[in-house]
Amino acid sequence: MARLYRRTLREKKGAPPGTLVYTGEVNVKTHITVCEYDEHKAVESEITDPRDFQIYKDDPAVSWINVSGLGQVELVGRMGDCFGLHPLVLEDILNTDQRPKLEDYEKYIYIVFKNLTLDRTGQINYEQISLILGSDFLISFMEADNEILRSLRERIRGDRGRIRKMGPDYLAYCILDMVVDNYFAVLEQLGEQLEVLEERLLDVSQNPTARDIQKLKRGLLLMRKSIWPMREVVVKLERRESGLLRAGTEYFLRDLYDHTIQVVDTLETFRDMLSGLMDIYLSSMSNRLNVVMKTLTVITTIFMPLTFLAGLYGMNFHHMPELDWSYGYPAVLALMAGIGVSMYVMFKKRGWL
User: Fold this and answer.
1) What secondary structure, in 3-state letters, does the chain show?
2) What does the alpha-carbon distance between residue 159 and residue 35 come to, in Å, rounded to a whole number?
3) pTM score, whole prediction
4) How far apart are CA 24 and CA 97, in angstroms?
5) β partners of residue 101
6) Is the dihedral of CA 256, 261, 265, 268 positive or negative?
7) CA separation (Å) from 270 to 73, 113, 204, 301?
8) pLDDT of the residue at 130
9) Does the domain at residues 293-349 carry the CATH identifier 3.40.390?
10) For the segment 68-78, what is each residue's pLDDT rounded down to a tens digit?
11) So what's the pLDDT on residue 285?
12) Does 293-349 match 2-284 at the fold level?
């Protein structure tokens, strides 16, 4: 996957601005669905011919066009031509390494952000979502079909809540709100991983490695890179500087901003806790090394006088009276044992052992 990403980036190198090259890792066939709704009805359909986009451009009902899979670059380009999207916007949609941002083009607003999921291995997966908000339509571009948008379609079908009574700006808010709520779910799972690491760190028999801590720390760092710019996006929407945002939506955007700040605060708390765990891990490793060194030092200190005695009587001089003494060998052994025991008792009383 990383090889595919690098290859597509090489294709963009030196190309003029607005060149459409898909840089994502998930290369699936483009699938376009339309959900047209108002207060009285909701109609869903699929589009295969790009010329069919024109009928939804000036429709008084709210038209939600969802594009899943960005592999067919030409189809995305024809769709942009139909709705008058700027070539740089189309380029950003296909370049899936964008920083979350909001750009106002007067006739439409371009919003790009990241949806995060956590797989079974604890790896954080990123998916870029782009929104084109117009006066009576919303276009969403996704790398693949997403469970979040499926639940939103069910809300529209069942006329649950106020979504069918509101405009496309409220629909854009709903998508952003569901993505931010998904951040909480990912943070909850990361918090559980953090608790497991903390328990393993306190358990000597299951001490984690630095790689486990660094892996989680790197995941939080990448997650911070995707979540922090979301504050700017929500703030710009909340200010209602564009006429595409209707009165009443700002209250929901204000609540969305509070949720975003809460996510950021939780993320920063986890990063601080993880940094503390790394410090504890390094301290515990240093303490273990100190204990080992202390034990080896005590053993070496005990054996130093014993080595001296053994070396003294191993010099094989002729005039050493102890060598001819019949009790010389057991006496030296007793002396060595006495010195070792007495030094051990002294170290024990001083708390060095």
Assistant:
1) CHHHHHHHHHHHCCCCCCCCCCCCCCCCCCEEEEEEECCCCEEEEEECCHHHHHHHHCCCCEEEEEEECCCCHHHHHHHHHHHCCCHHHHHHHHCCCCCCEEEECCCCEEEEEEEEEECCCCCEEEEEEEEEECCCEEEEEECCCCHHHHHHHHHHHCCCCCHHHCCHHHHHHHHHHHHHHHHHHHHHHHHHHHHHHHHHHHCHHHCCCHHHHHHHHHHHHHHHHHHHHHHHHHHHHHCCCCCCCCCCHHHHHHHHHHHHHHHHHHHHHHHHHHHHHHHHHHHHHHHHHHHHHHHHHHHHHHHHHHHHHHHHCCCCCCCCHHHHCCCHHHHHHHHHHHHHHHHHHHHHHCCCC
2) 13
3) 0.77
4) 8
5) 112
6) positive
7) 39, 22, 23, 46
8) 93
9) no
10) 888 888 888 88
11) 76
12) no
**Rounded to whole angstroms, how far apart are CA atoms 347 and 111?**
70
CATH class for the region spanning 2-284? alpha beta
CA 310/CA 320 separation, integer angstroms: 14
What the block records as the tokens of 166 is: 């509101």
Q: What is the pLDDT of residues 213-251, one digit of tens each?
A: 778 888 888 888 888 888 888 888 888 777 788 888 888
Note whether 37 and 43 are within 8 A (CB).
yes
Cα separation, 137 vs 63, whole angstroms: 5
Residue spans of the domains in the chain: they are 2-284, 293-349
Contact status, residue 12 vs residue 23, Cβ threshold 8 Å: yes
Per-residue pLDDT, averaged over 8-29, amounts to 68
